[in-house]
Design a protein that fits this description.
The chain has 197 residues and is mainly alpha-helical. The chain is built from nine helices and no strands.
Length: 197
């Protein structure tokens, strides 16, 4: 196999992540080196141990982080229900990539060692702010924006976790599930629907 003369830190992490997710912690640095197209010695120039490589690969935040930056540009534009579905799909994509990493990292940690998942506080704050501003514009029924934000975040992450943990016999289509969920959520958020209070 031809070897790549130079490889970046992130390319090694990408190869390691793929190998560890396929084979678990029992995968070797040779397996990672083969996937990356480099020698095993090249890995140890970047990471002192297999464990350091493993935890670096598993704890790196997925690139498809949702909601914070682009959410602000969506306020007041387009169809709000469609925007909520796009956000839900992004949350599912992000958590679907992150959950297996975190579960694998938790499974091999040493007693007393803490593996901390990436914080979602800024993303939750951005989602809450988005919903709050849409409420202020009258595009969503006025109320406490943390309620639909928390409902949405917890439902989507919970769904993703259940699909990650279940066997394929009960696997649901993510897009269909999220579309049905957003339609249900939208019944309480649609400003054009008169409800008896």
């Amino acid at each position: 196999m031809a070897r790549t003369p130079t490889i970046t830190h992130s390319q090694i992490l990408e190869a390691a992540r793929a190998v560890f997710l396929e084979r678990g912690f029992s995968a070797t640095t040779t397996d990672v080196a083969n996937r990356a197209g480099i020698s095993s010695a090249s890995i140890f120039k970047h990471f002192p141990t297999k464990e350091a490589l493993f935890f670096a690969a598993m704890s790196e935040t997925p690139r498809d982080r949702i909601w914070a930056t682009e959410l602000a540009t969506e306020i007041g534009h387009g169809d709000t229900r469609s925007d909520l579905l796009k956000i839900a799909l992004r949350i599912a994509s992000y958590s679907g990539e992150l959950l297996p990493r975190m579960m694998l990292a938790w499974s091999v940690r040493q007693p007393g060692e803490i593996v901390i998942p990436p914080g979602i506080e800024p993303d939750f704050a951005a989602l809450t702010a988005y919903i709050g501003r849409e409420m202020a514009l009258g595009r969503i029924v006025r109320g406490d924006p943390t309620i639909p934000a928390m409902t949405m975040l917890h439902t989507v992450v919970g769904f993703t976790m259940s699909q990650t943990l279940q066997n394929n016999a009960v696997h649901l289509d993510t897009s269909s599930f999220l579309e049905d969920f957003i339609n249900l959520l939208w019944r309480g958020l649609d400003p054009n629907v008169q409800t008896a209070r």
